[in-house]
Amino acid sequence: MIAGQFLFLFSALGAMNGIFLAIYFFSRRPHRLANSMLGALLLAISVRTAKSTFYFFNPNLAVEFLQFGLSACLLIGPLTYLYVHYHLSALRQDVAGREWCWHLGLSFFVIALGLLFPYSEYRYIWRHCTYGIHAFWFLYLLAAGWQLWQSRVILFDGAARISRHTLLLLSVYGSSGLILIAYLSTPFTSYIVGALSFTFSVHITVVVLMLRKEAVVETEKKEKYQNRKLAEDDALSLLISLNQVMHEQQLHLNPNLTLALLAKKTGSLQTTVSQVLNDKLNKSFNLYVNEFRIDEAKKLLLNEPHLNMELVAERCGFNSNSTFFAAFKKITGQTPASYRAASSATTSP
């Protein structure tokens, strides 16, 4: 009896904490799509977990509640993918699109079909559709995993340690996969395993992030203290090294160039490079790199008029057309097309 109560409490605790975390990410400032997707994901998993917990301890639960839990399960795969997608887009500084409309729209369409064919009247179909729901979830995990693999340079290259944001990203993705495996293995284990796995993953992730935050803060304090000792001559020398490396190695053409990688090329700390760029040039790392890319774009626009804007953006190191257009307009005050047209008119006889 006591063991059963403890099991119920531990399982329900994961669902409750998931709801509180969802509220936190929904209300987090500034508002970002990645945080909203993570909040929605935690909410969907919490609903699915709560359904599993109550059904395990009360098999006579109303079928409407079972349908509600299975419907929430349809959202877990797409929300995992969308969280990974928008998190990586923010790292690449891509303009956030409205991909969520299509992915979540498909899920809500299937959920609407479920309302037309309720569990209470079509129990046979619902009992077998779980295989399709889990396959749907798995396909989205594969798509998210592919995006993580393609962005591995941004996430890891040149970093002495994994950042808290990357750790959270990988933890969420791994937890989604762990919960799916737990539900798939219920025929061989127990129905409550999915709820327990969610509780375990939530608490482990929170603890790891808290410990990681303390370590990162302590390290940043040390690096900040070291940066204060940077002399004027050393700062100018670092600027020369940065410009030399950028020109000689054409680092700006790498779409996955990060502050960590640039710092590694000059044998400096990330915080030192960032401080020098801000103090001496009054520029952020992104603006510093984008100016090199825009200079390259100007040459291509004038010397290779047959290239379309997409190819120009790609050859200059931009990850997307939208990022290219935004950077070009910000730095030159005009669009790439108007710059090409104006320059062509000036040089024509």
What would you say this structure looks like, in words?
The chain has 349 residues and is mainly α. It folds into two domains: 2-221, Rhodopsin 7-helix transmembrane proteins (Rhopdopsin 7-helix transmembrane proteins, Up-down Bundle); 231-347, Homeodomain-like (Arc Repressor Mutant, subunit A, Orthogonal Bundle), CATH 1.10.10.60. Helices cover 79% and strands 0% of the residues. It has helices at residues 2-27, 33-57, 63-92, 99-116, 123-150, 152-156, 164-184, 193-227, 232-249, 259-266, 270-281, 285-303, 309-316, 321-332, 336-347. α2 (33-57) packs antiparallel against α8 and α3 runs parallel beside α5. It is elongated. The relative contact order is 0.08.
